[in-house]
Structures are given as structure tokens and as C-alpha cells.
Specification:
The chain is of the alpha/beta class. The chain is built from 10 helices and 15 strands. Bound molecules: nicotinamide-adenine-dinucleotide (NAD).
Length: 352
């Protein structure tokens, strides 16, 4: 029987979730949607032919016997909406970041465990062919021991606008919005080591930069005079329990030549860059670069569909969930520690 689906938060990313569910054919039935902006729920329902739409998740969950729910709201509502759905007996796929902080994330994980339901986090980059190829090479020993990694997600002019700049709705700036993707992906590829110590710094020197037209990326909720109470640049060094260190940099606005993003993994046998996907090593007493011929990329639509398929397959007991609540909690521990370190100027030990 088809799993009954509900979508909470009907803005930009809810379209990617819908595309994923639609690609699942008869395995799912989209039954209801809701948004605190009722017009958005109505528009989304009309666009996709959804019969039941609401201005809050509680009525949606009460009126419909849903099996699975996607939480696609602003970050400040991830915990509330996920917990409500889990308590109503639904499996939940919650967008990244899992929550505003570790405390909220732990409550979500507890709600999933108490109700015996799956809580998956939308770390879509885990679904990429680049991630799978990197893990394959690492497992086979081609990189040797990975002791250092460097992850960047830098925009020269890419404040998305709207709620992304309001710390009460987002929980932070480029670190929690962009950095979260590359920190999680780094951890995932390195075998999910646990973070132990973090040193971080954040800056708000350039601000929204909304007077410059044609930036890198803008959300659906752009306004003329945006609130900007978040950082515009974050940088951090994260030490894991296996001794490896990850350096991360994420910006909405930064005076660099070109926006860029990559993760480099440095092993004692070879280094690996994800974009472009290349290995750096030595061969016959010479330095050598290896460019594998196989496909090893990240494709947003393809991999978003894979994420939804992984969620549904995991709910049906046919696959292992690739991005668990535990992973979401570890990520929130890292983000909390970066923000605390940035505030105090001191390194922060993560205690569990
Ligand atoms: N996985 C990715 O690559 C990716 C990409 C973009 C956004 N996201 C994440 O998706 C989430 C939404 O981002 P977006 O770009 O779609 O934002 P958006 O503003 O376009 O849409 C969010 C919607 O949630 C609604 N909402 C807020 N609180 C709500 C609540 N309590 N109940 C119901 N609806 C509520 C808002 O009215 C809005 O329509 C964020 O957490 C963001 O980090 C993930």
C-alpha cells in the first residue's frame, strides 16, 4: 500500500522534496501540506494537486493518517514540527540543519526513539556519486590514513536573503546554512568520526550586500531591507576522536575572486579533491595526478531523488538510512561549539 505523505513548509526546497516523492511512483501518495503562510500552502497544493492544505502542522497531522512527513520549514521550526509529526506516529525527513542547536536536536532524536519512528536528516550531499566513490577509494586503502581535510563553501556575494539573515529564524549564517553540508559530508566520507575539540571564528564585516545585484543565490523570501543578524563568514578547525582535523570555511559574502566550494582529503598515500574529482599521489618517483574516468559528481536533482528514495526504502525496511538523527546531533554539537568558540575566543571541548 502507498505510504501517505505530508509536507510541512511549502517554500523553495519543498519543490525538491515533491520532485523526489513524485519519482517514487505508486509507492507514495501525497495527501496533505501546510505552511504558516496559508497562501503558500494553497499555491503549493494547487500546483501539485494536493487535496488537503492547512496553515499549521497540528491540524494537518490530526486530520490525516500520514505515514511519512517532510519538514521543509525555516530552521527555527524544524524541532517543533518534527516532534509533532513523530508524536503523531509519522516517520520524518527533516531538512538540514537538524535544528537550531544541540538541545533541540537531542529532543527530536528522543521523540523518534520514544515513538519507534525513523528521523532522517536531509544531508543530501551524502547521496552523491562523489561521496560514494570517495568512500570506495578510502575503504580500499588508496588514500592511506586521512589525517587532515579542508572543506570550503565560499560565496563572494551570496546572501540568500529573507529569513536566512535573521538569527532567530535561521540559528546562524553561512556556517549553519552552507558549512553544515560540507562538514557533514567530510565527516561522512571520513567514516563519521566524533568531534572532540573545536576552534572557530565568525565575522560580520560585509553584511547582507543586498545593494549588489546578480549575486550567487537568492531564496524565495527576498526582501528589500533584509535583517542581517548572522555572520557573513565562519571559519573553524575541528579535531575528531581519531586524531584527524577538519578545517572549514563558509561565507555568504567575502572579498575573494570567485565563489568556490570543494573538500580536500589528505591521506599519507594520496590526497583527494571532490570537485573536480581527482587524486594526488606519487608514482615511479614522480608526483602524479589521477583523474578517474568513472562518474563521481553531485547532481542536485538526481541526488535529491536518491535521498527521498533512501528515506522511503528505509521506512519500508529495504535500505539503511544514510543520514541518521545521530549524525544530525553530532553536526549540531560541532556548530554549537564553533559559535561558542567564536564568542569566547577559546577552543571548545565537546562533552557528551
Ligand atoms: N538540502 C538542501 O540543499 C537545501 C536547500 C535549500 C534549503 N534547505 C533547507 O530547507 C529549509 C527551508 O528552506 P527554503 O529555502 O525552502 O525556505 P523558504 O522560506 O522558501 O520556505 C520555508 C517555508 O516554511 C514555512 N514555515 C516556517 N515556519 C513554519 C511552520 N512552523 N510550519 C509550517 N510552515 C512553516 C515558511 O512560511 C516558508 O514558506 C531550511 O531549513 C533550509 O536550510 C535545504
Amino acid at each position: 500500500m502507498a505510504l501517505k505523505v505530508g509536507i510541512i513548509g511549502n517554500g523553495g526546497i519543498a519543490n525538491a522534496h515533491m520532485d523526489g516523492y513524485l519519482s517514487m511512483g505508486e509507492e507514495v501518495e501525497i495527501v496533505a501540506c501546510c505552511d504558516i503562510n496559508f497562501q503558500k500552502a494553497k499555491d503549493y497544493a494547487e500546483k501539485y494537486g494536493i487535496k488537503n492544505y492547512y496553515d499549521n502542522c497540528y491540524d494537518m497531522l490530526k486530520d490525516n493518517q500520514l505515514d511519512v512527513v517532510s519538514v521543509c520549514t525555516w530552521n527555527n521550526a524544524h524541532a517543533e514540527c518534527s516532534i509533532a509529526a513523530l508524536e503523531a506516529g509519522c516517520h520524518v525527513l527533516c531538512e538540514k540543519p537538524m535544528a537550531m542547536n544541540t538541545e533541540e536536536a537531542l529532543k527530536m532524536k528522543e521523540a523518534a526513539e520514544k515513538n519507534g519512528k525513523l528521523l532522517m536528516i536531509g544531508f543530501v550531499r551524502r547521496q552523491g556519486l562523489d561521496a560514494a566513490a570517495a568512500i570506495d577509494y578510502i575503504k580500499k586503502g588508496y588514500l592511506g590514513e586521512i589525517y587532515y581535510a579542508k572543506a570550503t563553501y565560499l560565496r563572494r556575494c551570496g546572501f540568500p536573503g529573507g529569513w536566512f539573515g535573521d538569527v532567530t529564524l535561521s540559528g546562524g549564517g553561512p556556517l549553519i546554512d552552507l558549512g553544515v553540508h560540507v562538514i557533514d559530508l567530510s565527516r561522512y566520507i571520513m567514516g563519521n568520526p566524533k568531534p572532540v575539540t573545536v576552534f572557530g571564528a565568525t565575522f560580520n564585516k560585509i553584511g547582507a550586500r543586498s545593494h549588489i545585484k546578480g549575486g550567487d543565490w537568492q531564496s524565495e523570501t527576498v526582501v528589500e531591507e533584509p535583517v542581517f543578524t548572522v555572520e557573513d563568514l565562519a571559519t573553524a578547525m575541528i579535531r575528531f576522536d581519531n586524531g584527524a582535523v577538519l578545517q572549514v570555511e563558509a561565507s555568504f559574502n567575502l572579498n575573494l575572486k570567485q565563489s568556490c566550494g570543494d573538500i580536500n582529503f589528505f591521506g599519507d598515500k594520496a590526497g583527494l579533491s571532490l570537485s573536480p574529482f581527482e587524486l594526488y599521489t606519487e608514482f615511479n618517483n614522480q608526483l602524479a595526478d589521477i583523474i578517474p574516468k568513472g562518474k563521481a559528481d553531485f547532481d542536485f536533482q538526481r541526488d535529491f531523488r536518491k535521498e527521498i528514495k533512501n528515506f522511503i526504502d528505509a521506512v519500508n525496511g529495504k535500505a539503511e538510512c544514510l543520514a541518521t538523527a545521530e549524525d544530525g546531533v553530532e553536526l549540531m554539537r560541532i556548530l554549537d561549539a564553533v559559535y561558542l568558540s567564536a564568542k569566547t575566543g577559546k577552543s571548545v571541548d565537546i562533552v557528551r
